[in-house]
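Q: I'm teaching a short session on how sequence maps to structure, and I want students to see two examples side by side rather than one. Could you give me a first protein with its sequence written out and its structure tokens following it? Keep the formatting plain so it prints cleanly on a handout.
A: Of course. Example one:
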Amino acid sequence: MTLILTGPGQTAVHRPTEFTLDGVRHSDGEVRHAYPQMGEEEPILTVTGPAGLTTAVPAFPDGAGWRVRFAPPLPGHWQVVASHGVELSPPLGLDVDPDPAARGAIHPQDRAFRYESGEPFLPLGADLGPLADAPRRLAELAAAGATVTRLAAEPPGKPARLLDEVLDLAVERGIAVIMTLPATDWTLHAGARWAAHPALFAWSSMSLEWTEALRAVDPYGHPIVGADFEIGPGLGDLPVVYEGDRSPWATIFSGFAGHLGDLRFNGLSRFLAGECLGSFTPVAAGPALALTSPNRALLWLPSTSEGSVALGGFTPGAYTATWCAAADGSALRQNTVVTTDGTIRLALPPLSADTAVRLTRTVPAQRQSSPK
């Protein structure tokens, strides 16, 4: 007997690619559909790529058949084979093109988060609520500058197919998803069905007992709440996404790796775009909260701030201070400050609203040699 596996022959790196297990061809040529049976072990798709990289991807039942979703992590030629018990499919070839815009999965790193491409990710957002209201809610979150939402996945059937559509819409809105799963064996179905989706940021299981089982069906290693990072009100050993109604500027500048709350994040998202928070150390400096490094610093100044701010630990030299409106992240003005002893002192002007400051070391222009 031979499994009948169908799917595309070409895709791009990190792009979800779907394969279908259509049935079983017997030695007499008769084809029987591969209807999933209650309690039946799922088929496995074995994919072998460049440099012999091999990954096992579980199938999930969908309607009257089995499907497999795979997002190749590397460009090049891959070979795909399905197995179900002792039955195998003929190998399929899959050519994977490079995609400079593809970022891959998000992982914790240095008490913050990064895509596989190296681009920083700052989770700012709130709960999604009912899936039926997802289009309106995702639009609302995107308008508020959110980058993440948390939703509750539901058992297979119509809700699962609706969640497929919600995840697609989240990608269009530029919002990543923390997916909360029930403490049942349906967790394995969810892992097989959505691990390859580009919207997925992290899993949140109702029971840590399912953590290892979830890792086994997720070949991309998405982080799991409680095991790889935390969501809560206090800092800990793992990266922590704050949940609550404090100012998101206060939480991020205090060392949290993200913020969940029904708030507006537009200014914070814009000001911190491209910044890797893991490279900074949080510091309280008088009226300001700051994130500092030897050649760069970010400050948040509440509107009540006055006097001056002194920050130490800098490489001596000249720095450009860019003052920005915290409300929308737009630049207001710039000035130059110089330190000879490693301490930068900023005199604060009267502030009518919360303000952010970016300190960057000024690179002297190279002198052009005179022509001989």
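Q: Perfect. Now a second example for contrast.
A: Example two:
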Amino acid sequence: MNESEGDLLTQEEIDALLAELEAGDEGGDLEPAEEAAFARLLGAVAGAAAPALGLQAPDTGASDADVEVVPVEEAHEALSGGALVIDVSGPVQATVAVGPGGVPSQAPDEPAVQAAAAEIRRALEEAAVGGVDLQAQWQDQPDLGKGSAQDPAVVARWGVQGPVAAALLREVRSLVEQSAQARQQAAEVPLAAAAAPAAAAAAAVQSAGRQAEPAEYPELDPAGDQAARAAIELLYDVPLEVTAVLGRTRRQIGEVLNLGPGSVLELDKLAGEPVDLLVNGKLIARGEVVVIDEHFGVRITDIVSRAERLKRMR
């Protein structure tokens, strides 16, 4: 045997190095911006799932989140006490697990799981991930998907009493990228609409083979403005139905038939969470409940943006 043969790597050592290199390409140290994006996205999911697990909902920001990349087998160990596993489908396929962080926990009942699923869906849609379909179920031994035990996964923790969220690194990155693309498209729509008339005018001039000339516009007619204002004022006395929605819930027929005096219905909103203000069934604002001379009222804290209203119309 040559002296150099003693320095050759075995096949097992080569496979181990390749696995390390592949994990290094997928993982590595997270950039601060990437870590913050992961914390916000996973925090939105964990915050929606926490009430069903009896945990304190975390802040969805990155300030109090501990985010790290670990092998998926370590992520499974971090959730060994059981977790709510959410399989997301739609624009992006992903599996996110939220649990108490290795502390054995009792499985939540089915109504609590379904309520958490509805809140998680809304949290992802508000994060601009787009329309998603998802299924949620409790697993005593959570599984983040098939693959190698060394696949990199993202684990986010929020304190000792807070939840732990975990997902495969590539899937979290796909969700964040989808969110960024959706936000960019939403920002480009007004710009494209504003640029369309100018682009059409330039194309018309170019097709005619003429040089562009300054446009002349007629002076505004004050009488026309007054007529338009008067036309709008005709609608001032049209009645509109304004509804404040404290919360919603879904129940089976048997549960509804069993309702009686003293029955308590748990709604999908948390204590202190803003209520929805609907005008003719359309969400226009959110606010907080107040009491005015022995009557309930709503103090508006947020007006729904035009982009959000358009997204709800799709």
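Q: What should students look for in example two?
A: Point them to this: The first strand starts at residue 66 and ends at 71. Also worth mentioning: Residues 1-7, 19-27 have pLDDT under 50 and may be disordered.
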